[in-house]
Design a protein that fits this description.
Layout: H1 2-24, H2 27-33, H3 38-58, H4 60-68, E1 71-72, H5 81-97, E2 103-107, E3 113-119, E4 122-128, H6 129-134, H7 137-152, H8 155-185, H9 194-234, H10 238-248, H11 280-289
Parallel strand pairs: 2-4
Antiparallel strand pairs: 1-2, 3-4
Length: 292
């Protein structure tokens, strides 16, 4: 229920902020005078901006299992001592975090782990065989604590809302600029001309890049909070620090792009401002300062 309320309030807030901004600068009057219905465009932008993000969120668990080949451990019949230990560890961490016990899965791949799901009480934590084979149980427990902290913090939902907000601004502003160029600069007075469509495409690319920077910044802050959350759940920062140090010396496995931000480690980005994860050394330093 909290997430439904948050989603509704976010939609309303986006529309109010955009509407107020346009009114303050007189843009709404200009657009209305030139035949553009600002209210309809706002509603269209919110629907387009949020629909994809919300659908992705609700499909995240089955898509994660399918794309990584993750095999969910039967909580009533683990097939090995390792599976039993994983289940018990994740369940203990979830109980400490005050969330429902997530599904636990293992997938074949280089060292990595991720958590996903639309609801705190119906989520998934998955670890790779590479991570299990390269880390000690204490280090694996720290990684699991990190993923459980993501769930407890509601990071998947919050990231979806942020993505929806920036998508809304991209869709709306690209069309406003396109309309301005088509009517004011190119002097087109008969419907929407080629200038509108070309400008919208170019602006969506440029604004989309700016939006990616915003989303990536938030994703990096999530990682610091999840690292601190792991330290809190385990009662010590040392296991997470050792797990990060170990991960820093390994070749981290890549996750599918749609779940990359959910992993314990991300792939290298073209620039640090586009990275979904902070550098390992920064995360270790934040834990050592106790300021994560």
């Amino acid at each position: 229920m909290k997430r439904i309320i948050l989603f509704v309030l976010t939609n309303l807030a986006v529309m109010l902020v955009l509407s107020a901004t346009l009114r303050i600068f007189g843009v709404d009057r200009f657009l209305m005078a030139n035949g553009l219905n600002v209210t309809q465009l706002l509603i269209f932008s919110v629907i387009v901006g949020f629909t994809g993000s919300i659908i992705s969120l609700f499909m995240s668990k089955p898509m994660a299992k399918w794309s990584t080949g993750a095999q969910v451990i039967d909580p009533n019949a683990p097939r090995s001592q390792r599976e039993a230990w994983l289940l018990d560890t994740v369940h203990q961490l979830a109980d400490r975090a005050g969330i429902g016990r997530p599904e636990v899965a293992i997938y074949d791949g280089a060292p990595n782990a991720f958590a996903t799901g639309a609801f705190k009480n119906d989520s998934l934590v998955a670890v790779s065989t590479g991570l299990l084979e390269s880390m000690t149980e204490e280090e694996v427990a720290a990684v699991l604590g990190h993923e459980v902290a993501h769930i407890a913090n509601g990071d998947m939902v919050t990231l979806t809302l942020i993505q929806g907000v920036v998508n809304t601004f991209v869709v709306f502003l690209a069309r406003v600029v396109g309309y301005f160029v088509d009517r004011t600069i190119l002097r087109n007075e008969r419907g929407l001309g080629a200038g509108y469509f070309v400008t919208v495409i170019v602006c969506e690319i440029l604004f989309g890049i700016a939006a990616s920077i915003i989303v990536a910044w938030f994703s990096r802050q999530r990682e610091f909070r999840a690292d601190a959350g792991s330290a809190h759940l385990l009662g010590s920062r040392d296991p997470m620090i050792r797990a990060l140090a170990r991960l820093g010396g390994l070749e981290a496995g890549e996750l599918p792009k749609s779940f990359e931000a959910s992993g314990i480690s991300g792939r290298n980005a073209i620039s640090a401002i586009f990275a979904s994860h902070p550098p390992i050394q920064q995360r270790i330093a934040a834990l050592q300062r106790g300021a994560a």
